[in-house]
Amino acid sequence: MSFVKEFKEFAMRGNVIDMAVGVVIGAAFGKIISSLVDDIIMPLVGVATGGINFTDYKFVIQQAVIDGTTQEVLKPEVTLNWGSWIQTIVDFFIVALCIFIAIKGINQLKRKEEKAPAPDPEPTKEEVLLTEIRDLLKEKN
């Protein structure tokens, strides 16, 4: 089997394509949630905490070196951006919550489908004919 043919069989499997679709949708969902956190939730948290923006918090390990005459940065400061890390943790928990809510809703829909009884099947032509014969025999008696 040639390499190209083998790769084509691998790439065209249903589960590989489903996984690719899931990754693309997951990336788009991640952007939506990041926007929700950055643009809606964190400003509200900032107002509630007196205007704190977590992404601004950092530990400076080494100060920047600036040229005294030109004010040009010769060496940028080295920092630990712990506020961005807090922001990422908040993003994660909100994404996890949204996924939990979505999965819970999907599971409830599946349970409703399972509980709904299947409709009675339509009678066959033979059953309809036998019913008519029975009804005619009842009328004669």
From TrEMBL:
What's the short name of a Pfam family annotated to this entry? MscL
Keyword list (alphabetical) reads:
Cell inner membrane, Cell membrane, Ion channel, Ion transport, Membrane, Transmembrane, Transmembrane helix, Transport
Looking at the UniProt record for this protein, which Gene Ontology cellular component terms does it annotate, in alphabetical order? plasma membrane
Q: Where would you say this protein principally sits, based on its record?
A: membrane
Q: Where in the cell is it found?
A: Cell membrane
Please report the record's description of how this protein sits within the membrane.
Multi-pass membrane protein
Q: Which is an annotated GO molecular function term of this record?
A: mechanosensitive monoatomic ion channel activity
Q: Which residues cross the membrane?
A: 16-37, 82-103
Q: Which residues form the signal peptide?
A: none
Is the keyword Transmembrane in the record? Answer: yes
Highest taxon listed in the record's lineage: Bacteria
Annotated family: Belongs to the MscL family.
Role summary: Channel that opens in response to stretch forces in the membrane lipid bilayer. May participate in the regulation of osmotic pressure changes within the cell.
NCBIfam families, alphabetically?
Answer: mscL, PRK00567.1-4, PRK13952.1
Please name the HAMAP family in this protein's record.
MscL (MF_00115)
Which PANTHER family would you find in this protein's record?
A: LARGE-CONDUCTANCE MECHANOSENSITIVE CHANNEL (PTHR30266:SF2), MECHANOSENSITIVE CHANNEL MSCL (PTHR30266)
Task: Fill in the subunit field for this protein.
Answer: Homopentamer.
State what protein this is by name.
Large-conductance mechanosensitive channel
Species per Swiss-Prot/TrEMBL record: Duncaniella muris
Supply the gene name.
Answer: mscL
